[in-house]
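Memo to structure team: turn this sequence into structure tokens by end of day. - J.P.
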Amino acid sequence: MADFTRLPDLALRTYGGSVVAASDESFAEKESLIKPGRPGFQPETFGNKGQVYDGWETRRRREPGHDWALVRLGMPGVIRGVVIDTAWFKGNYPPHASVEAASVPGHPSPGEVLDASWTEIVPLSQLRGDREHFFPVADDTRYTHVRLNIHPDGGVARLRVHGEARPDLSVYDGLGFDLAALANGGLVTACSDEFYSSPNNVIAPGLARHQAEGWETARRRGGGNDWLVIRLAGRGVIRLAEIDTTNLLYNAPAAVSLTGIDGDREVELLPKTPLQPDTPHRFRLDGDTPVTHVRVDIHPDGGLARVRLHGHLA
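Reply from structure team:
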């Protein structure tokens, strides 16, 4: 597995992504490309269009050209890598694929996006059936949309577009917002343990539907405590911290503390404070020191569903 897969999937449906258009989806719907989780399959399950696949599948092309799917990223940003997954497509996968990206401001229609200027971020590459294909991307441009091109036709189970969110924060001028949110450009840059689930889950959009959609560490048998570091969307002052242990019934931390980091300086934002299981907690913070990162210490171990750090840019 490539290192870039540790970064969030900017196209994920649960992060607001959408497959806004496709050249064809005769056998299996385009929306499946960005669904969360691994693709499933049940053999000999037939619908009106044939075997049911958990993915996007086009008809057999009888004319020149190729098929494509247009994806609006849920979190616009810098793309560090793409995964094209042909899971379960064994005799009907496309032999080749490429990926293009574009940056289109506002809320454009699919037609306006298709007419935009496109940059190839994954060149035409060979695919194999029933496997994941990892393609690193070396491009620091901020993109809002990607287009998956399959040559000439066939089925793809999932498209993952990993990178770092780069939102337009000007919409928050004069307003407070969540400085830690993935969607606003926050990112977990360090973590003591991620045995059960990714630490970036704690700053993901929306609420955790179950325990696996949060961050959970292994059981700590020695001294010390577990922790993670969040790089904020920008240097800012935090006024409200939300620490959510929803769904963590018997593995919530006993306590939490927050430390702000600004260069070599550290400032206490929240002293060690008890937590309750399966509970959203909200703590007003009195400090006015701007910070760029926040260290979240959980004592001694356990899990968190979400961390929200509301404030304003310095």
